Amino acid sequence: MTLTGEADFAELFFDDVRVPADALLGPLNQGWQVATTTLSHERAGAARLYAGLQVQLDDLVADLAGIEVNGRPVRDDPVTLRRLGELAMRIKYLEVLCQRSISAMLHGGDAFSSASLAKTIWGELGQDLAALAFDVLGPYGANGRWADRRLASRSLTIAGGTTQINKNVTAQRVLGLPRQ
């Protein structure tokens, strides 16, 4: 059960299970390779998620239109504008990174590296966007869709591999650093 009351995650364990050889997902005793390949595709699938963040940013800008603090529109506040601009820039960067991952996958390259980096950025960006909405919408952000997004955003750096795991993958595969 998640913070928003939904059941998005599940674990299922099987003990003493025998699988016929023709039903294996990969070579015998190569389960980790199958799992990392699956994660790579899952992370590359996250490539479409930058579009969802752009929609959320557009929603936030629209929601800010009618909100005033001390008689001034919130969306005219220089700090809010800077934060919105930073998020827009990071979403664009994520889009380019995701396109790179998709291109690598289509051309037989290493999509895993850029997909791991994209997943890390996507999770942190989703949390930052939800936090900004919560900050600038005041009481309007404390309930409804923005409250749900804020709570749900906490899982973005866990699902599909934690931020720490994805940073290690990036360090090893992109930067060539030794495994820790």
TrEMBL record:
Domain Acyl-CoA dehydrogenase/oxidase C-terminal: 29-175
Pfam family, one: Acyl-CoA_dh_1
Source superkingdom: Bacteria
A GO molecular function held by the record: oxidoreductase activity, acting on the CH-CH group of donors
InterPro entries attached to this UniProt entry: Acyl-CoA_Oxase/DH_mid-dom_sf (IPR046373), AcylCo_DH-like_C (IPR036250), AcylCo_DH/oxidase_C (IPR009075), AcylCoA_DH/oxidase_NM_dom_sf (IPR009100), Mycobact_Acyl-CoA_DH (IPR052161)
Keywords per UniProt: FAD, Flavoprotein, Oxidoreductase
Sequence similarity: Belongs to the acyl-CoA dehydrogenase family.
Protein name (record): Acyl-CoA dehydrogenase, C-terminal domain protein
